[in-house]
Amino acid sequence: ASRKKIALIGAGQIGGTLALLAGQKELGDVVLVDIMEGVAKGKALDLQETRGVTKFDVNVTGGGTGDYAIIKDADVCIVTAGVPRKPGMSRDDLLKVNLDAIAKVAEGIKHHAPNAFVIVITNPLDSMVYAMYKITGFPKNRVVGMAGVLDTARFQYFVGEAAGVSPQDVNAMVLGGHGDDMVPLLRYSSVNGVPLTKLVEKAKLDAIVDRTRKGGGEIVALLGTGSAFYAPAASAIAMAESYLKDKKRVLPCSAYLDGQYGVKGVFVGVPVVIGAGGVERVLEVDLNEEERAMLTKSLESVKKSVAETKL
Ligand code: APR
Question: Domain Lactate/malate dehydrogenase N-terminal: where (predicted)?
Answer without folding.
Answer: 5-145
